[in-house]
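User: I'm writing a short report section on ligand binding and want a predicted complex to refer to. Could you take this sequence and beta-D-galactopyranose and write out the structure as tokens? A short remark afterwards would be nice.
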Amino acid sequence: MNSNCKCHRREPVSVVRLRKSGALRAVSYMALLIGLLVISGGELLAASGVIRPGDPWLDNRGQRIQAHGGGITVWKGRYYWFGEDRSQSNNPDKRYVACYSSRDLVHWKFRGQVFVLSDPEHLGPHWVLERPKVYASSRTGRFVMYAHLDDVHYKVARVMIAVSDRIVGPYSYVKSFRPLDEESRDIGQFVDDDGSAYLIFESRPTKGFFIAQLTGDFMNLKKTCFIPAPLEGGALVHMGGLYYVVGSHMTGWRPNPNVYATAPALTGPWTEFKNLAPPEADNYDSQSTMLLKVAGSKTTTVIFMSDIWHSRELWDSRYLWMPLEISNGLMQLPQPQPWSLNVKTGDSLVRVEAK
Ligand code: GAL
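Assistant: Sure. The structure tokens for the complex follow:
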């Protein structure tokens, strides 16, 4: 450029103002940061603050989140997501639970494989540890992990407990048992508004599932309710004076229409079960794992958390999280779409995208 030339390209007023305020630099840094978060192969590291049901979900390292059949524990203003870590690099003789933390439920920081277990009860080849859930006790300062423990044929049907003094582990194995002396396979976690903690467990011989309250030290259970409906993937939420329980039918890794019922108290009486979505959609190929209530300053969003299982390559299983539509005792899982959430206000915004 000719340095003698006094004329210069006119910048739009808005840009000039931004430059004067020094904000342009900040905007450029942000653009650069967003650019850096775009991972090669077209996978987006949730940079936009958008949850994309069914898409690969990447952690802060750019690696796929391994938290299948998972649950969320809220502790000191942070969300901790625990679940089955099915990484291909894992030792096939061991079972792994991974933990991620987040303040916004969109961006997740890998906190490690917080529980690594060798066969604890002579369960044999292809033994099973599934659906881990962590309860935080402000009373004891301990963190107690429950998980489904089984052999390859799913005949052992027990829960196991592991504990840690830190939420991010490492967790140590304590014991396994049959809750209420019943067979227990899929488990779910629920913490009520008053802090009382519950385990939901499916019990095949009884043709139903139990809701059981954790004892004060979280190391045992007492019966709250038995619901005579053979459902698994059990999940609960307390909303607008009603309890909603959700579950899937028993078709293994294959999806089926998930259903829900309501009751004024956890002890019942429970209504008949209704479909959560049009039955032909098979719950949009997913299976329930948890209902997460985000109560903000303006409103409350209940997130349906579910797994899209890829049974031949479990590491590649995906997550379907969607805000539920709830009113007057009715609950509906809408067609999955990208959506965003503000955990402070509780607002969620579903973005209907053209196909
Ligand atoms: C599903 C269950 C999963 C896993 C699978 C094995 O029904 O929800 O957690 O146990 O069966 O087939």
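A remark for your report: The chain is about 10% helix and 40% strand. The radius of gyration is 23 Å.
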